[in-house]
């Protein structure tokens, strides 16, 4: 009996812990479609998100860049024509998900609300009530099993 208890303890110590992984979700609350790309070291396909619909991906890491940026424009093919974009970035780090929000080439949601809300209410929300990023860092961290929902408009 003592041997089997010792063997089970040793096996458990060698077994890696499996952590729950949440989702990055983009909910389009605008009256027109938005366009979404998942970008790490490679650019994923363009996804059209119609009004009321969502884009979702399981948190993952990129072996080259480390993090992922979900790039959002209000114009089709906007990633390639210099359109203003909102970047919803995350980095999966074991038990944690680090997340941030920023704009590039302008503010595509100026005048409307942009919010990143975690399913775990003890984590930080990013809230741009007028669609324009405030000054200072917006980086937040939460447990990796949390879902993060970015809602536009």
TrEMBL record:
InterPro entries: CetA-like (IPR006771). The keyword Signal applies. The keyword Signal applies. Residues 1-20 form the signal peptide. Keywords: Signal. PANTHER family: DOMAIN PROTEIN, PUTATIVE (AFU_ORTHOLOGUE AFUA_5G01990)-RELATED, DOMAIN PROTEIN, PUTATIVE (AFU_ORTHOLOGUE AFUA_5G01990)-RELATED-RELATED. This is BYS1 domain protein. It comes from Paecilomyces lecythidis. The lineage of its organism: Eukaryota, Fungi, Dikarya, Ascomycota, Pezizomycotina.
């Amino acid at each position: 009996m003592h041997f089997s208890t010792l063997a089970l303890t040793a096996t458990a110590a060698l077994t890696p812990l499996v952590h729950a992984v949440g989702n990055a979700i983009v909910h389009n609350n605008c009256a027109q479609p938005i366009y979404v790309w998942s970008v790490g070291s490679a650019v994923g396909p363009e996804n059209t998100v119609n009004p009321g619909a969502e884009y979702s991906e399981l948190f993952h890491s990129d072996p080259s860049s480390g993090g992922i940026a979900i790039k959002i424009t209000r114009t089709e093919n906007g990633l390639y024509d210099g359109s203003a974009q909102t970047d919803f970035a995350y980095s999966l780090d074991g038990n944690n998900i680090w997340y941030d929000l920023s704009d590039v080439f302008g503010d595509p949601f100026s005048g409307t609300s942009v919010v990143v809300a975690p399913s775990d209410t003890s984590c930080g929300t990013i809230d741009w009530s007028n669609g324009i990023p405030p000054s200072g860092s917006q980086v937040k961290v939460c447990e990796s099993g949390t879902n993060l929902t970015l809602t536009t408009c």
